[in-house]
Amino acid sequence: MNSNSQTGIRGEELATKHIVSKHYTIIERNYRTPLGEIDIIAQKGMQIAFIEVKCRIGDTKGKPYEAITRTKLHHMRRAATFYILQKKLKNYKLSLQVISIQLKSDLTVEKLLWFEDLV
């Protein structure tokens, strides 16, 4: 497993712990659709959150959240719509979210930002 994969796995683990600490229930992780993958799908009350996790060690290649482009948001929206239709979800508030995690070289958290309700 390469270091990028390890960093991504570590980031998703940290994001999941953070989401649960905010009283969300994890519904799915790494949910694959024909339109793309959703890193984390979580629920809190009547809200379903589709969450993309971006994680990097340091910021020499930019901040993790800077990797979220309009194209990525478009793909997230399409994958979320697929999920909603497949699961026949009604009456839920839906949101696209990003968790950006910057790690220190020892893989501990330097900075975690949670961007909620992007669209």
From TrEMBL:
Pfam family, one: UPF0102
Name by which UniProt lists this protein: UPF0102 protein COY90_00245
Superkingdom to which the source organism belongs: Bacteria
Gene3D superfamilies: 3.40.1350.10
Molecular function terms, GO-annotated: nucleic acid binding
Organism: Candidatus Roizmanbacteria bacterium CG_4_10_14_0_8_um_filter_39_9
Record family assignment: Belongs to the UPF0102 family.
CDD domains cross-referenced by the UniProt entry: PoNe_Nuclease (cd20736)
